Amino acid sequence: MRGSGSIRRAPARPAAILRRVRAAGPAPTVRLRLTATYGVVFLLTGAVLLTIGYALVRHNIDGGRSLHQELQKLGLAGAVPPLGGRFGGPFPAGYAGYGSIVDAVRSQLRNDALHRLLLEYVLALGVMTLISVAAGWLLAGRALRPLRDITATARRVSGHNLGERIDLEGPADELKELADTFDGMLGRLDSAFASQRHFVANASHELRTPLAIMRTEVDVTLADPAAGTEDLRAMGEAVRETVDRCERLIEGLLTLARSEAAEGRGEPADLAELAGDCLTDLRARAEDAQVEVRARLDPAHASGDARLLERLIANLIDNGIRYNTPGGFLAVSTRERDGRAVVHVRNSGARIDPAGAATLTEPFRRLGRGGDGFGLGLSIVSSVVAAHDGNLRINAPTTGGLDVEVELPAVSSEPSVRNTSVPKENVNVSSALMPS
Fold first, then answer.
1. Rounded to two decimals, what is the model's pTM?
2. Are 199 and 316 found together in one domain?
3. DSSP secondary structure string, 97-159?
């Protein structure tokens, strides 16, 4: 700032000018950029093509054969007197000055023709460029229409309508792949949200009873002014037992939610080895329940989450022991059949209505079979099977008990040697199982 009081402003930078121009003009959308690209490409290729055509026309005019040669080709050379200059031989006597005039006229006609051709080429190029820009705008809009559908669906989707899908129809191109990928992502989000809502609903429903029991125990003990040490100890043991039950319930609900959200990805696992480990862990339970265990474990390789697959088999075995009868049996077998890895578990027990057996995969369904479980074991089994693209069949034999078969996609693996039978005295069952 000088003494004159005027303020000198720095000149605007090119980058600032470019930003102003962009802000003043239309938004640089993909459709606009594609249209501009189409127009520029057509303009350049058209200009190159017309330039080549113009050069060829000019070359043919300048380097063509003479009039006398053309007349000879047509057989008319004798009907026209010989012309001099560039049209033929020497001019007759008295016409010597006409050679330069003929050449000048011919050059003028050639230049006029090339000039008109150039103007027509430029005009045609401009008109076709405009037409190509308009066609490019329409084609770009048509090509980008699926993106607008994807954008509109993404804006509409929320936690309350995750079931909405794009369902893009058309050829299997990149846009179709993008839409299908987006639909797959919405499906996974929908499953995750549904699993979360399911977990919250189940937890809130099932935790009411244990919490009410603890509150009652505490209130009764505190309301008794004569309560002594034994009463307080009894109250503490009751509360401790209820807390343990709540812990097992929450652990089961978390496993159910995790299995519902699983995608079945993982490493190859031998179901025979997993079943053998589960039988080893559950030995004490089987002996206490006086259940005879029969096992035939042939190699059966599947791909997935080994922890969930082990929990699947463990829940089936635990379910077969928990709802069995003293002196009953539990038969476990694994094998590969028609490209599928199969786990088959059958147990004796009370007779079950065949129509209600299929409902045992629903959470907290026990069909009055008693036991100290929560009814989550087969729900977890069903979720794990679904996550691994398998099949689950549950039958209720007329003789009693339950017959469950799980089929999973088999994967190739190195052949392994394993005992085809497990003696009863070598079978284990563990209480560190998820509640069923």
1. 0.50
2. no
3. THHHHHHHHHHHHHHHHHHHHHHHHHHHHHHHHHHHHHHHHHHHHHHTHHHHHHHHHHHH--T
